[in-house]
Amino acid sequence: MSPALFSPTKFSSKKGKFVSRLTGRNQHYSRENSMLMSDDDMSQRESIAGSDIFSQDGSRIIVPYGGEGSMYGSMYLPEDDLEEEDVAIDDEQLGPEVDSFARHVDMCRRNPGEDADEAAIELINGFHKDTFDHYQDALRRKETYLGEDNDFILEVLTETDFYKMEGETWDLVSRLVPGRSVDPAATHPSRDVADYESNEILRRQLLKESAVFRELNIIRDWLRSIAPTPAIPTEGAEDEEAMASGHMYTLNALKTYKQENMDPTEFVRKGPGARFEYPERGIPAPDDQSRLINTEMDPDGPLRQERGVAVGDNYYDSTFYRVLWAYIRKGDFKRAAEWCRKCDQAWRAPVVLGGRDGMDWLIDEEIAEDAMYDASQDQGPSGNRRRQLWRRSCYALAKRPSKDPGDMWEKAAYGLLAGDIETAAPACNDWHDHIYTQVNALIEAHYERFLRENGRVPNTLLNIPIPDAVATLGNKNVMAKIIDNLSRPEDHRFTDSMQKTALRAVQGAVISNRIPKLVNIFADQLRQFRQDPGYEPEKDTNTPVDCTDWKLLRVITHIVIVLQQLGQWPEQGPDADAAQEVIAGYIRMLAAAEKYKIIPLYAARLTRDRCVEVMGEVLLHVINENTRDDMVRSFRSYGLDIRATLRRTMENAFIQTEPFYKYDELPIQVLSEFSLPWQDRRKVQPEDEKLVRTAEWMLMVDEMKDDLLSAGVMMFKRFYLTGRLDAARTLVERIPSQHLVPGDLDDNDDLSEEAKTTASVYIEYELLIDGLEALDSWSKLLAACTAAKREGGLAGVRRGKFKDELQTSYEVAQAKLGLLVNSWLVQCNNHADAEQVKHIRNTYVPDITMALHGVHLAAGHHLNKSHYSRCLDLAVLVAKPSSGVAETFVATGRMAKYVDELANVSLMCLQAAKGVTLEAVLVKPGQEATVAIWNVKPVPKPGDGDDSMHA
């Protein structure tokens, strides 16, 4: 089964601005009134499909628009106003990027001659740029808004966060995904590195040879680029002064202690060489006499004395190390060094900058010519030639025991420099920080191992402890382990909005190279959501993604398109099926928002059968004529199979509307409605309109006359079997047989013999509406004539020229109704659907006969009494076995009533016989008129002479 993913239910067109995105995604739907449910949730009543026939043994035969064997059924929901359908999803829910993304996809499609990888990169860059533009727009709205609407503020903040994170996601895709189809070892052969050359040469060689090391560096560079700029306190002048003055409270305490405890005479006696000696144990803190502070303020003083600083300097330490850690986390080592100098800790600047391997412009020419390395011939040697010793020193500093405020940030800063996870993790603030810490540690571990393999780590350093993240995390599927470990449902460290959590899941899938797994999860949700109306993806604890988050659906769909463009997505198998499901879900979402013009662009990325299935659902909801024209042109432009799609669309229309067409309790006199005023009749129902509207699609394709004729016959059967005469009238008005079979039927050479047979049946069904129209015109004119006679007598009738008009109307009505009584559907009695045809004849032929009887009777009363005899002539036709009319009266139990009507008209004929001729000849003056039906003359039987009689 494949019910539609979008709901045609009514949504208020005046929604509160931005409020819709704040609610749970599934709450945008009315599940009870949604096409998201499957046939299993729909009550399947005994019904007539209009698309089925029965064989002689009673078994059902499917022809050709589905039935119970079709896989494509869903429940159609009545719509109150077909002219003004409200969309299920509005533009505010989708965002403007839907159209802009489609433009980029279309441009990529229009340039098939370009290199596939380059086209994919342009596609990603286009997505990234558009998302950044939307982020900037949301940011401007947030910054310029001066109102007090909390919902608006919250929505703009949510929108800004989403676009920011989506832009980061596309940046990650652009950096990481295109290179995955390239084998680094094949494109960059290794070379021997001389002993005198820098380790940087080896690092770059490892980048070229190892796909793992390359991806880790790309991920780290990306994480650095999205890290926020450190928040430096600038709320007041004292903040900047405190940071520039260093340990101000400790220095003041030392100064005060010196002033209070020094001997001035001793300084005079000793002269310039005098030096004040602080107690070796330290001095009491000015704010806590029981606590001792260090007295030596050189960089190693606190560590050597194992003493802390004054409590007042805790703010300085905490702020300094926190900002320093943030600069290192962002990879901005230059600004980190400047921060050290600004805060009167210039000695730390070389430590921060020690992570760059040493190089010499004259020796390491390969590096010097690299624009990424800021070296020049005038600069001379630069960087750290003892980087592995530096790293071990940083690790030792990170591991030293201390509990002073600010030490956590100091240890974390040194931990990042050393590539240690344990000491850096406590300072991590969010999901990206944790990933950075572990990726950074892996890079250092891989580099260390590579240097060891090449004999670049001195033996003297091997005994000094150093963290090895490869040994800790392993070297297989390591990024998947990291992502999964940070994405456990019970882990509440990163509680955030659903959209941000979902985008983290996308980023995690990209980082761990498990996009197919994410797409499969999304596809499973789409399937479950369409099959089970109670399924709520946002409550599925197995994954943070939600298939009804339209922005997320757009992101995942276009990531799939990028991978397809790069040739990194399989064309067959489960992953290919999942991609088809996701793209199909995106198409249904576009249809729910009435974004019909861009739908064929994405439909072209589906397989032929899947495209037919999905578009067969979508086209059911396209009403606007201009949109239909655009869709047909797009189908041809994208090479889609429009004929198969329209066949599926018609099939879906028949299946979805089937439960509405029951004829078990059809009233006997269905034609009685035609005597009612137009406003009192049963209106065309939504399911009727849906069928006719769907059939109109085929009028736009010249090659589909055969299909349209078959569909039209099935619709006629449904309408007639359920007494929906105005629906049948609508079909005749909008798809008249002249449009399909102009002129004589035999002259339509473009139709097959089978189609000509179907066309003849279509015309037969159309005759009933023609006859009823004539009957309707007769009834209206007769009513007007009766009113005129009541007001002005016969003279009034003559003055109104009603008699001539009534005569003309009578001739038309009796001709068309007579044709129906005489031969309507008789030729179809031998067709495969004979049982349904028989039911239709039993339903309408008695009414048509009685109606024609009434026309003759009224004509005898208003025009000429000779018309009374036509009632008896009609009775002769009814009685003829070959006409089959009498059988319809017997089958419906109405023969007795018809006989009563004949008895009444017989008396009228006898009363009118004196002086009246009922023959179409002139009676000579003085000749007695006779009633022709009583002129019994013998008719000889073959071989018997004159024993037979005839009237």
Q: What can you tell me about this protein's structure?
A:
The chain is mainly α and 951 residues long. It has a two-stranded antiparallel sheet with strand order 1-2. The protein contains 40 helices and six strands. Among the domains are: 210 residues, no CATH class; 218 residues, Delta-Endotoxin, domain 1 (Up-down Bundle), CATH 1.20.190. It is 56% helix and 2% strand. InterPro entries: Nup84/Nup107. It is found in: Nucleus, Nuclear pore complex; Nucleus membrane. GO terms for molecular function: structural constituent of nuclear pore.
Quickly name the level 1 CATH class of the domain at 701-918: Mainly Alpha
CATH architecture of the domain at 701-918: Up-down Bundle
Main-sheet strand order equals 1-2
Cα(first) to Cα(last) distance is 63 Å
How much of the sequence is in beta strands? under 5%
CATH topology of the domain at 701-918: Delta-Endotoxin, domain 1
The gross shape turns out to be elongated
Which bin fits the share of residues in helices? Answer: 55-70%
Protein name: Nuclear pore complex protein
Subunit structure: Part of the nuclear pore complex (NPC).
GO molecular function, one term: structural constituent of nuclear pore
Main location: nucleus
